[in-house]
Every structure is written in C-alpha cells, then in structure tokens.
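User: Run a structure prediction on this.
Assistant: Running it now.
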Amino acid sequence: MDFENFQIQISESPLLSAYAAFLPFAIIILELIIAGLLCYRKTRNTGLIGSFILMLIFTGYIFFIIHTSENLPCSCGGILEKMSWNQHLIFNIGCVLLDAIALIMNIKYSRPAR
C-alpha cells in the first residue's frame, strides 16, 4: 500500500540494495501475475507453484536477514508490522505450508479444466 516506503526499505536491505531500482516493480508485477493465475482453474496449479516459490524465497530472505543483519528494515503493513522478525518468520513458514497443502489438494481434487 505504501510503495515509496517499500522502495526505501529494499534499498536499505543489506542483501537487496543492489537491486533496489527494479526489484520493487518486479515483485509487484510478479504478485499480480500470480494472483491472475490463481483466478482460473486452468492456471491455478501454476499460480500455486509460483506463490509457493515466491513465499519460499521471501521466507528464506527473512531467515537470512535474521541471522546476518543487525539493521532489519521492514516495510510490512497491517498486522505484520506489529510482529517481531521471528514471529514473521513463523508466519511465513505457515503460509508456505498452507500453499503446499493448497497445491496438493488442488492437484488431488480438482476437475480437469476445459
């Protein structure tokens, strides 16, 4: 919701600062593409895989930042900004697990797309 703050926080990240010019735009575009893929039965598995990979990368980033950095910038909004970094990591692990469960269930129970 606060794109300028998101850009600033990425530029302050020790791991992502070199990519701060294009990464915020790339993340938003990728999220919109994944959201679109999730809307249609024919592309839902692709969207779930994309969501799983994106959440896995973000969870790995949080794990890395927690263990290597003193300065921990965060541009999260809503309830996530009230969480500590360790709570955020646990929340993200839960999201990754839910995404994996959704993918497995979609593969198992979905009807073929037309």
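The chain has a mean pLDDT of 87.
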